[in-house]
């Protein structure tokens, strides 16, 4: 098996394109309610990622996965409304941007000082090769305290987080658009490095 290397991402055009493609690929099941065309989704999201927060998992020279560490000051995705309007038209683009802003930009409140893990994504062709596990093992070396959330639709990810040492501290039922979102509950999990 090829060695997986985790590196802080550089803010370049190539990196931005790769991050966008991986994110859209990994979350396509959720994003396809806006468009079935991945190129349209890529164009809409391309400028939304604040790459200073991102780490990448590399298999050789290929970016195989991404994750971000954020805090209470700034999240890792900032929706660029004009890009959504350009991709989807004025009305649809505005509505999508508003919905995604509330999802991706609402402030976080952590239980303790540390980081929140978000935008965890593995490129489809690299899934099942230990990339997600390598990224989470890296994250726990960066900070002694971490939080994340995962939905009940992603049980494999929840099981992986539990194997790494994350524990659920809160469950929240989804109130709106459960069927469209594809999940009914979010699990909020935390990791504390033992001293």
Question: Would you spell out the secondary-structure blueprint of this structure?
Answer:
Elements: E1 4-8, H1 13-26, H2 28-31, H3 38-45, E2 54-59, E3 62-70, H4 81-88, H5 90-104, E4 115-122, H6 131-142, E5 145-151, H7 155-164, E6 167-173, H8 178-181, E7 185-192
Helix pairs in contact: 1-3, 3-4, 4-5, 6-7
Features:
195 residues, alpha+beta, Aminopeptidase, seven-stranded mixed β-sheet, 8 helices, 7 strands, 38% helix
What does this structure look like?
With 195 residues, this protein is α+β, with helices and mostly antiparallel strands. Helix content is 38%, strand content 26%. It has eight helices and seven strands. A seven-stranded mixed β-sheet has the order 1-2-3-4-5-7-6. Strand 4, helix 6 and strand 5 form a beta-alpha-beta unit. It is globular and about 55 Å long.
Strand order of the largest sheet: 1-2-3-4-5-7-6
For the record, give the distance between the C-alpha atoms at the N and C termini, rounded to a whole number: 32 Å
Quick check: average pLDDT? 93
CATH superfamily: Gcn5-related N-acetyltransferase (GNAT)
Largest sheet: 7 strands, mixed
Work out the count of structural domains: 1
What's the CATH first level? Answer: Alpha Beta
Share of β-strand residues? 25-35%
Helix-strand makeup class: alpha+beta
Helix content: 25-40%
Cα Rg: 16 Å
Give a quick rundown of the structure.
The protein has 195 residues and is of the alpha+beta class. It has helices at residues 13-26, 28-31, 38-45, 81-88, 90-104, 131-142, 155-164, 178-181, and strands spanning 4-8, 54-59, 62-70, 115-122, 145-151, 167-173, 185-192. The chain contains 8 helices and 7 strands, in the order E-H-H-H-E-E-H-H-E-H-E-H-E-H-E.
């Amino acid at each position: 098996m090829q060695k997986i290397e985790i590196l802080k991402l550089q803010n370049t055009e190539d990196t931005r394109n790769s991050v966008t493609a991986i994110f859209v690929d990994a979350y396509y099941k959720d994003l396809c309610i806006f468009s079935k065309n991945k190129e349209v989704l890529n164009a809409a999201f391309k400028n939304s990622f604040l790459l200073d927060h991102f780490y990448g998992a590399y298999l050789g020279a290929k970016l195989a996965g991404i994750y971000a560490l954020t805090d209470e000051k700034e999240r890792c995705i900032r929706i660029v409304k004009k890009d959504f309007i350009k991709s989807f038209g004025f009305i649809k683009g505005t509505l999508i941007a508003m919905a995604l802003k509330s999802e991706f930009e609402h402030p976080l409140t952590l239980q303790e000082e540390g980081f929140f893990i978000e935008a965890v994504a593995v490129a489809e062709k690299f899934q099942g090769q230990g990339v997600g596990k390598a990224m989470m093992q890296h994250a726990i070396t960066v900070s002694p305290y971490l939080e994340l959330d995962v939905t009940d639709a992603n049980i494999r990810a929840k099981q992986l987080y539990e194997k790494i040492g994350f524990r659920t501290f809160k469950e929240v039922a989804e109130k709106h658009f459960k069927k469209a979102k594809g999940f009914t509950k979010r699990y909020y999990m935390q990791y504390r490095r033992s001293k």
